[in-house]
Write a structure and sequence with these properties.
Helix content: 55-70%
Oligomer: single chain
Largest sheet: none
Number of strands: 0
Number of helices: 6
Shape: elongated
Amino acid sequence: MPSGQVKEQQEIGKPLARNTSTVTRWLQKYRTGGLSGLLEIKKAAGAKRKINDDAIAALIQELKTGKGFSSYGGIVEWLKKEHGLDIEYGTVYALVRYGLGAKLKVPRPQSYKQDEKLVSE
């Protein structure tokens, strides 16, 4: 009667539909770190932030003021002038629009032909 034990790593990979190299990597992780090492999910560190926390905090405060910015290019220039950071437009747009959830609100242009009394009503 078979004991149910596997003699080769290839036998493990077939029913799991995994390559032998994957099974080898799993076993190596298990041998070095045990079950917790095998189950550990590692996350890549990623690139270092281009805008530091102080600049982000100052930007948030500036966005909260009534005047704010008229364009994302204005924010790029402000970061360069105030904090000495040379950041690309796309990076600033992604941070402000998606990271901070802010929209730059600029009033729509109005025609000089509009009657102010009708608009106010």
